[in-house]
Design goal:
Shape: elongated
CATH topology of one domain: Immunoglobulin-like
Strand content: 35-45%
Structural class: mainly beta
Radius of gyration: 22 Å
CATH architecture of one domain: Sandwich
CATH class of one domain: Mainly Beta
Number of strands: 7
Distance between the termini: 78 Å
Strand order of the largest sheet: 1-2-7-6
């Protein structure tokens, strides 16, 4: 009996790929606002601090990590972007990594809460 061709959406069926390439909807972080600053905690167990990169660019915080376990022949990567709704004081951003938890403090710029354009309401 002749094998039927695979449907177009099963193009990865014959490849030896993990069933889930990207984690979606995982709760590996917590973000909240406290005392005029944002506090972000990200769970990154098994990473060394030098394997983690945190960068800030135009209202977006990028968190990336790459860990290679040569003994087990495995490689883990992490990348997530966080967009912030308020202006952050770029020079005041601080980060620490302890016990597998990355914590980033992003102070809200004081003038940012006060600025804006008042919109006249017509009656």
């Amino acid at each position: 009996m002749m094998a039927l061709p695979r449907p177009a959406n099963a193009w990865t069926g014959g490849l030896d790929l993990p069933s889930q390439l990207f984690e979606g909807g995982s709760n590996d972080y917590e973000l909240y606002e406290q005392d005029d600053q944002f506090v972000l905690t990200v769970e990154l167990p098994g990473f060394d601090p030098e394997e983690i990169t945190v960068s800030w660019n135009d209202g977006v915080l990028n968190v990336a990590g790459e860990h290679e376990d040569e003994a087990r022949g495995t490689r883990r990567t992490y990348h997530r972007r966080f967009r912030f709704p308020k202006t952050v004081d770029d020079d005041g951003i601080e980060a620490s990594y302890e016990n597998g938890i990355l914590t980033v403090w992003l102070p809200v710029a004081i003038d940012a809460a006060m600025t804006g354009t008042e919109i006249e309401i017509e009656s």
